[in-house]
Design brief:
The chain is α/β, with parallel strands linked by helices. The protein contains 9 helices and 10 strands. Helix 4 packs parallel to helix 6. The longest helix is centred in the C-terminal third of the chain and has 31 residues.
Length: 341
């Protein structure tokens, strides 16, 4: 049987990434991040799409070189079709279409959220077999998504609950911005939280039915509390930023884990994974380890390099879809909003 070599391309937000997977094993994973957005306190879509246009060819070139693969050896091109920022997606989708057509090989469209979950199936060598078995639960948490997903197969996923307003990562970023700590807020809050007291301050926790999340109430509670404390002490944030970060992180992790516990109990599932950008957060990772001990869960936490947007997760999803000959036509458009098929 000839080798199956998949090129993955990811361009859903502000990271341009390309990866090469051969027979299910990762050979390279190259990402170009965009520092241009830091000055604006968030991703500027127009600037993001322009940066993708500059980055996509060099990033793909590097991914092929590091993998030791010539473009003529590729079996198929997998790309993120959505969800994401439309301008950013169009750069990756258009490049993938042109590249695949020029080589006369199939194209495979990948759902970005499905890719995050399947990051757990990336193999770095033949003996890398630590992956969840179906069915498992996955807590997918990022700047744009907070979902509990029941994963029955690589192509059969059911969203049990999701945020009805802000995502967890979005709430962290916004609270960080209010504190004047910079963007992106996640890594900053995470670092400060390790030096603070998580019980120092109490913030509102939403009472939402079922498995759905809500973080807008917490954000408002944080904002109003901060406003009141600043009246008494204009330097309150500077004096208490570690405790504020720790208390914010603790509250968000507590909200996330409470619903996940409920889903694991109701569905009688002990295999539990976490994915997405917020899965890099130390407080969340520690909560997963604690739950594994307390509830007998077998947990799966991705490597830091697979938590943020990356093409390795797109390539592995593309590999599975290739095995099922699940290709897409040249006419397939990008989409900015969707959950799972």
């Amino acid at each position: 049987m000839s080798d199956i070599i998949i090129l993955g391309i990811e361009s859903s937000c502000d990271d341009t990434s390309a990866a090469v997977i051969k027979n299910g094993i990762l050979l390279s994973n190259v990402t170009a991040s965009q520092a241009v957005h830091e000055a604006y306190g968030g991703v500027v879509p127009e600037l993001a799409s322009r940066a993708h246009q500059q980055n996509v060819v060099p990033v793909v070139d590097q991914a092929l070189k590091r993998a030791g693969v010539k473009k003529e050896e590729l079996t198929a091109v997998a790309f993120t079709r959505g969800p994401g920022l439309m301008g950013s997606l169009l750069v990756g989708v258009s490049f993938a279409k042109g590249f695949a057509r020029s080589l006369g090989i199939p194209m495979i469209d990948v759902n970005h959220l499905q890719g995050h979950i399947l990051a757990h199936f990336i193999k770095e060598d033949e003996n890398d077999n630590d992956k969840p078995t179906y069915p498992f639960l996955c807590l997918l948490v990022s700047g744009g998504n907070s979902q509990i997903v029941l994963v029955k197969a690589y192509n059969d996923m059911e969203v049990l609950g999701q945020t009805i307003d802000d995502a967890a990562g979005e709430a962290i970023d916004k609270c960080s911005k209010v504190m004047g700590l910079g963007y992106p807020g996640g890594p900053i809050i995470d670092k400060l939280a390790r030096q603070g007291n998580p019980q120092a301050y109490q913030f509102a926790k939403p009472q939402i039915q079922g498995y759905d999340y809500s973080f807008s109430g917490l954000k408002t509670s944080f904002l109003y509390s901060l406003r009141d404390w600043l009246k008494d002490d204009p330097d309150f944030i500077e004096h208490h930023k570690e405790d504020l970060a720790a208390s914010l992180e603790f509250t968000i992790v507590d909200i996330l884990m409470k619903k996940l516990r409920k889903a694991a109990k109701d569905y009688k599932i002990k295999q539990v994974a976490v994915a997405g950008g917020v899965s890099a957060n130390n407080g969340l990772r520690n909560a997963f380890r604690e739950h594994a001990q307390r509830y007998g869960w077998k947990i799966f936490i991705p490597k830091f390099s697979y938590t943020t947007d990356n093409a390795a997760m797109i390539a592995i999803t593309g590999y599975y879809k290739y095995m099922d000959k699940d290709f897409c036509g040249i006419e397939m458009p990008a989409y900015s909003r969707v959950s799972f098929k």
